[in-house]
Design brief:
mainly alpha; 67% helix
């Protein structure tokens, strides 16, 4: 379900790897956390239409799209976490390549 949501985010919303790479500021993690916090708030009997995005929500209010289905909400959070994991792995691979290139130049 999470993989399908991530694919939907990429295909329908345009949130590609390149787009995600621009969020090295923790925005993807914060967005996932906001959906999880909102879910906890919902279970605490808050009124849905009165709940604002939690303070850690990194983007505009119109971008916060909670759902009344707790599984769907968890899937959204999971897809954001998956996007952050992929971003970190790409970032790590890029750093590794830079280090290897620098070592190669030092040996030459």
């Amino acid at each position: 379900m999470i993989a399908a949501e991530r694919a939907r985010q990429i295909e329908k919303e345009g949130w590609s790897a390149g787009h995600d790479d621009g969020h090295g500021d923790g925005a993807l993690r914060n967005a996932a956390e906001a959906y999880l916090k909102h879910l906890r708030t919902r279970w605490a009997d808050w009124v849905w239409d009165r709940v604002r995005p939690p303070g850690m929500w990194p983007w505009g209010k119109k971008d916060f799209k909670p759902t009344e289905d707790p599984i769907r909400q968890l899937v959204k959070a999971g897809a954001l976490i998956a996007a952050e994991i992929d971003r970190l792995l790409r970032d790590e691979a890029e750093i590794d390549q830079l280090v290897k290139a620098k070592k190669g130049k030092e040996r030459a």
